[in-house]
Amino acid sequence: MIFLINENKTITGFQTIPKTTKAKHIIVTDEKIIGLLKDVLGFVQLDDEGQLPGDFYQVALIDKCGKEVDKLLTEKLTELKTQSDELQSSLVGEVPQVEKETWLNQEQEAKAWQLDNDYPTPVLDVICAQRQCEKSWLVEKVIEKANGYKLKAAEITGKRQKLEDDLKVICTVNGLDSEEKNVSSLASAIESLRTFSTAIEFSK
After folding, report:
1. How would you classify residue 150: left for phi > 0, otherwise alpha for psi between -120 and 50, otherwise beta?
2. Measured between alpha carbons, how far apart are the two ends of the chain, in Å?
3. How far is it, in rounded angstroms, from Cα 30 to Cα 44?
4. Which of 28, 126, 145, 163 has the fewest CB atoms within 10 Å, i.e. the most exposed one?
5. Average pLDDT, 10 consecutive residues per value, the chain (204 residues)
């Protein structure tokens, strides 16, 4: 079996003999070693003398598993952020953007007016005139909705952060935050990450 090598002395592919190649390569005849090399293709580096290191499989497998852990962690964190953003968006439903842009002013004016009825409330005044409603009623509704939104947003944020903490625990329990890593701990972390649920659920 011919194993192809790149400029960094990393084995990147293979061909079956007698097919020849002009690319840098090594020839391996041991079936067991051939099987191991195929299993960790792209993670095996030759030593300074251009030979396979004696512990090549263990080293390459650790590197391969480490890359898989990094990939899974990134995927899970991305899933969490996406879900969190979608849930936050669902809180406002089909509210037009033009209305959302007045929310901060509405809340500021409503809270200030509650403390001082002489406080100017230009945004609330326009809304009251169009809805033909009392300002005191509108102020209560604005504050109630603002507080409700913030509580739901805080709940979503807290649950997302808890799941992120759980992901960190998986890494800590398996010693992935230390320099010394082994195949067993990496394999355990991979299995835990693959089955980790990123579902964010909150009370209605």
Report:
1. alpha
2. 61
3. 16
4. 126
5. 92 81 87 94 92 92 93 95 92 87 95 96 96 96 94 93 94 78 89 94 64
